[in-house]
Amino acid sequence: MKVLCIDGGGIRGLIPALVLDEIERRTGRPTAEMVDLVAGTSTGGLLACGLTRADDAGRPRYTAAELAEIYLTDGPAIFAHDPVKAVTSAGGLLDEKYDAAALEGTLRRYLGEDPLSAALRDVLITAYDIERRAAFFFRSARARRDPAYDFTLAAASRATSAAPSYFEPARVTDAAGAATYALVDGGVFAVNPSLCAYADLVQAGGIDHLTVMLSLGTGSATTPIPYQEARSWGQLEWARPILDIVFDGVADTTEFEAAAVMGDRYIRLQTELREASSEFDDASAENLAALRREAERLIAEQSATIDRACALLTT
């Protein structure tokens, strides 16, 4: 049993996409043909859906390189600065920061109407139900058994990427029309979905067969929050930083716990953001170039670890 997990992080998803491109280049194989389960949160969920969408011949429709290119071509439109929206939303404090139309257009264009149940490999995508106040998981294995748990890949991607204050919550209905859910980004509880994937394997009775779980980060923030500034903040000032802190804290904690539980079977490829912005929505040409350099540095510095992951994925 081989598992791939991909963190959330908005435009920073370019980093794991480029790492996967390197893995596909070294192995000569599509990602979906090397793993049994792909778990993703937010931008990682989008990648999970893209990697496992089938073409007409039943093979992976997209390479990791093609998915990385989407960040470069569509990212600037998805996170486009709208002066009117900036004023009416007060920069995301009073309303969502971005209109979701560009994001939804990208999802329709690349994922179409394909259902979760048709994914080439098992997929686990995280979201949070704000009406039922509970974690929500899109599971392709369950979708294949019951249409009431099937959704389009585009709907699952829209839901998992609905980061609070960035995009409005997603409203999705299952294929059977049995229920409708109001969902936001799964990063609020599992920006690194590794332990969610681990629990899923335990529940399915497959944990003893796990040989490798490859976990890909989207870059960790290094910019400090000065005490002298934060000590006088109230709810308004904390509104945006607290989301970043929660996401970073959850990712770091999950990495520690997953490594403790799985030992050498857990491979984590993550890097500090030394050049690129840690903002989820900085899709400027300058930052996209910086994100590419961050990925290239990660690949160079952890080449031996990537070789080990490639060997385990292809054994």
Overall description:
- The structure is a single chain.
- The chain has 315 residues and is α/β, with parallel strands linked by helices.
- It is 46% helix and 13% strand.
- It is built from 13 helices and 8 strands.
- Strands 1, 2, 3, 4, 5, 6, 7 and 8 form an 8-stranded mixed β-sheet that branches.
- Helix 1 packs antiparallel against helix 3, helix 1 crosses helix 12 and helix 5 packs antiparallel against helix 7.
- It is globular and about 55 Å long.
- The N and C termini lie close together (11 Å).
Q: Which descriptors apply to this entry?
A:
alpha/beta; 46% helix; 8-stranded mixed sheet; 8 strands; 315 residues; single chain
Mean pLDDT: 94
Multimerization status: single chain
Q: Could you state the order of secondary-structure elements as H and E?
A: EHEHHHHEEHHEEHHEHHEHH
Radius of gyration: 18 Å
From the spread of the alpha carbons, the general shape counts as globular
Strand content: 5-15%
Pick out the low-confidence regions.
none
| End-to-end CA span | 11 Å
Secondary structure category = alpha/beta
Largest sheet entry: 8 strands, mixed
Number of strands: 8
Please give the share of residues in helix. Answer: 40-55%
* Tally of separate helices: 13
What's the helix and strand layout?
Blueprint lengths: L1 E5 L7 H14 L9 E4 L2 H10 L11 H15 L4 H6 L12 H11 L10 E8 L4 E6 H6 L7 H8 L9 E4 L6 E6 L1 H4 L3 H11 L7 E5 L10 H4 L4 H28 L3 E4 L15 H17 L1 H12 L1
Parallel strand pairs: 1-2, 1-7, 2-3, 7-8
Antiparallel strand pairs: 3-4, 3-6, 5-6
Helix pairs in contact: 1-3, 1-12, 2-7, 5-7
